[in-house]
Design goal:
single chain, elongated, mainly alpha, 141 residues
C-alpha cells in the first residue's frame, strides 16, 4: 500500500523543478555584491553630477538669501537672522553656516545641498525596499 502512494509523486517533475532552481539561482554573495556595485555606481554618478562645475554657475535666487543668512560672524548673529525666516528649513542654513567657517567660497556654500541631495538618492533606494520585499519579480539573467 505504501508503494502505491510513493508512485503518485512523479520524480521526473521534481528533478526538473530542482534543476531549474539550481541553474537560475545565484549564490547569495554574488547577488549582494552585484546589488552593492549598482548602488555605489548610482550614488557616485549622482555625486559627480552634483559636483561637476559647482563653482561655475552664478549665485541667484535662494542662494543670495542663503549667503546672507550664513555669512554672520557669530552663531548669535546667525540665529537672529534665521529667526526672521520662517519659510525655509533651518538645518540647511545651519550646515551652510558650518561649512562656510572652513572657507567663504561658492563651493562651500553649495556643498551641504550637494551632500543632502546625494543622501536623498541613497534614501530613495533603501526606504521603499521593505515595502516591496517579495512583491517584485527579479529576472535571473
Amino acid at each position: 500500500m505504501l508503494k502505491n502512494k510513493t508512485k503518485f509523486i512523479n520524480r521526473d517533475i521534481v528533478k526538473q523543478y530542482y534543476n531549474s532552481i539550481r541553474n537560475y539561482s545565484r549564490p547569495f554573495w554574488q547577488t549582494l555584491f552585484s546589488e552593492w556595485v549598482v548602488i555605489l555606481l548610482i550614488v557616485f554618478t549622482a555625486l559627480f553630477i552634483r559636483l561637476y562645475k559647482l563653482n561655475s554657475a552664478t549665485v541667484d535666487g535662494d542662494e543670495i538669501f542663503e549667503a546672507y543668512y550664513t555669512s554672520a560672524e557669530t552663531i548669535e548673529q546667525f540665529l537672529l537672522r534665521l529667526k526672521n525666516d520662517v519659510a525655509n528649513a533651518p538645518l540647511v542654513y545651519f550646515l551652510q553656516f558650518l561649512s562656510l567657517r572652513l572657507d567663504q567660497t561658492l563651493f562651500w556654500l553649495r556643498l551641504p545641498t550637494v551632500l543632502i541631495g546625494t543622501i536623498t538618492v541613497i534614501g530613495s533606494y533603501f526606504l521603499p525596499k521593505p515595502l516591496f520585499r517579495g512583491k517584485v519579480k527579479r529576472n535571473n539573467l
